[in-house]
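Q: Could you fold this chain for me?
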Amino acid sequence: MALLKSIKMKDKTFIFNCFGNSETDNPVKVHFKRFPMVDEIYPYADLDPLLESDAVKNFDGSKESQNKMLTYILTTISKNADSNRIDFKKFFNDCVESFSDFVFDDKEIKTVKDFFDFVPDHAIFMIAMDCYLYAKEIDMFQMDEKKT
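A: Sure. Below is the predicted structure, expressed as structure tokens.
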């Protein structure tokens, strides 16, 4: 009988590397409540299908119709470009439970809300990307024969 065996599973407590955090005596720790599923992504915006819009369906060549079409195309291109970005706020709200040993400008950061309220945007991006890449790493398994 085959036996599925775990050989490397991620720790739910993560020490991010950016800003030299992992080299400090008391690094910031991110505590995950769960990791995203392999196919679970966090797009900043949903993709909009261009050809299924009212602007395309009702296009009659008139000046008003052309303006509606142009506005819709430009809006959709902009929105679809955002769909390639990661919605870190949604990712953190879904997957991160808390922080420990994190202080920024004399403010202790313990919750996801604290993180997004008090940490500067560029630092949020760097830390969040480090956490996201760690969370998306795949646990390793192998098959063994069960000994009877």
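A (continued): The two ends are 9 Å apart (CA to CA).
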